[in-house]
Amino acid sequence: MAGYHQNLDQQQAPAFFARGPSPLARLAFFSALSLALMATDSRLQYLGSVREHLMVVLQPLQLIANAPSVLYESTSEYFSTHHRLLNENQFLRKQALIQAISLQKMKALTLENTNLRELLAANQSLEEFSQLGEILHVGRDPFTKKIIVNRGSNQQVVDGAAVVDAKGVIGQVTRTYPASSEVTLITDKSLTIPIQIERNGLRAIAFGHGRDNTLDLPFLPANVDIKRGDKLITSGIDGVYPKGLAVATVTDIQTSADSPFARIVCVPSGGIENHKQVLIVSISQPDSPANTSAVNHQTGNADTAAQTTAPTKPNAAQLPVSKVPVNKTPVASAPATQDINQNKKPANPTPAVVTEPSTANKPHAQD
Amino acid sequence: MHKTKLQTIYLSLLVAFICVLLPWSGTALKVRPDFVLLVIIFWILRAPNKCNIGTAWFIGLWVDLATGGVFGQYALAYTVTTFVAVVYQRRLVLFSNTQQLVYVLLLLIISQLTLLTVKIFSGNDVLGWSYFLPSITGVILWQAAVALGLNTSRPSRSK
């Protein structure tokens, strides 16, 4: 009898509950594995290609998941009225005509610009290469502002390409997969974008706010020359975004006595969460002959190199000569506060001066 | 013991995963329940010998991939949650329906808290209370499933 009891005591659980290793052991093992994965993924870059390969496996599942919404859209399109289609057709024709005219003007202007640049012996501005992408779905993480578009590395989309819609910049490609790519929106907390105030050419860096769909312009002094309603455009200094695209509009400026900086809130001009189609704009690769001079030029300036998010892109040449600051001494303490007068003749068109503004922007280099 | 085919488990997990892949946006994204975790909890409670912490970890990796976040965060959250589920699994037979519901809610919140911790460590800022809405919708979904006839605690009556 005593022996029987001993036997029973030794067993922790009746045999029919046996499940291999104990839950605690499994927890320890798999948690350690997850933590190791997280560390590898966030600190080292080994898992990028693994992710790409696994995304290919995920592709058919994604197609299945998208099928209902695609089906709904196509059927609703099919049943759309004749009248509506006619109206839309007329509108599009009109728009195409207007755009064709402005395109003609632009061709002439581009030619003129090229000639002028040649006369000034300045670097040619970078050529852009764009393609239309369609948004597959928004990111599944409510913490981040991301969208997935249906163009990937198979379609020559590269990391760092700018993504725009008809009204302005909406984000940047942060990860490319074979048939899709992940775009981080400019309102995401981790994305910064070098901008310029359209009215006075003031340069600054806009940071995504993260929670609501706004942008911040931090680290600008309280007396900065920015007004409500000012338009922000891309400055093009970073070599990632083409120059002159609309980014946002200033909606609110708050100054408080206890802070040396102004709190500036901007609302993006692009339809950050509205559209289905977007344009992916990448600046052409540095191996093309037009940009070789830019690359050579860049090697002499380490500061500009630090600013680019994509390592393969030249950037210094992007800055046009007309944007040379009149006040040539860089302001080290307050970045991006130099006033630039667009209309004034450049004081000195040599490259050394052209790259000067980049030193003022250095503290804002993209993380 | 009731019999659950391994295929049924994986098929249901696949369906849940496709639910995650659906193009959610806006408010729907904010209140979207964690389908995959709900299915895992269901199988952990019903067939713990077929679906365990390893299964949860593995499917968590796929959710990580779909989310596009740092690899391993969902895997970790699912691992921790299923551990709690497994530990209290045997007790669950005695639970009433309401108690079970509270228990599931607790599990979903544990998963979200783990995710939140990981994300805060990696530099996200804290979202408001609305962050926990998916847990509420998850419980509602669970209750709907129970009302439709799925059950975990009385396996003898099911097929």
Radius of gyration of chain B: 15 Å
Helix content of chain A: 25-40%
Largest sheet of chain A: 6 strands, antiparallel, barrel
Strand order of the largest sheet of chain A: 1-2-5-4-3-12
Percent range of helical residues of chain B? 55-70%
Structural class of chain A: alpha+beta
Order of helices and strands of chain B: HHHHHHH
> Which residues of chain A sit in consecutive blocks of at least 5 with pLDDT less than 50?
1-6, 286-367
Average pLDDT of chain B works out at 85
Report how far apart the termini of chain A are: 72 Å
| Shape verdict of chain B | globular
Oligomeric category: heterodimer
> Largest sheet of chain B at a glance?
none
Describe the fold and architecture.
The complex is a heterodimer of chains A (about 375) and B (about 160). With about 375 residues, chain A is an alpha+beta fold. In chain A, about 35% of the residues lie in helices and about 20% in strands. Chain A contains 8 helices and 12 strands. Chain A has helices spanning about 1-10, 25-45, 45-80, 80-120, 290-300, 300-305, 350-355, 355-360; strands at about 130-140, 145-150, 160-165, 170-175, 180-185, 190-195, 205-210, 215, 230-235, 245-255, 265-270, 275-285. A 6-stranded antiparallel barrel of chain A has the order 1-2-5-4-3-12. The longest helix of chain A has about 40 residues, at about 80-120. Chain A is globular. With about 160 residues, chain B is mainly α. In chain B, about 65% of the residues lie in helices and about 0% in strands. Chain B has 7 helices and no strands. Chain B has helices spanning about 5-20, 25-30, 35-45, 55-65, 75-85, 95-120, 135-145. In chain B, α6 runs antiparallel to α7. The termini of chain B are close together. The model of chain B has no long low-confidence stretch (mean pLDDT about 85). The interface between A and B is large, with 48 and 49 residues.
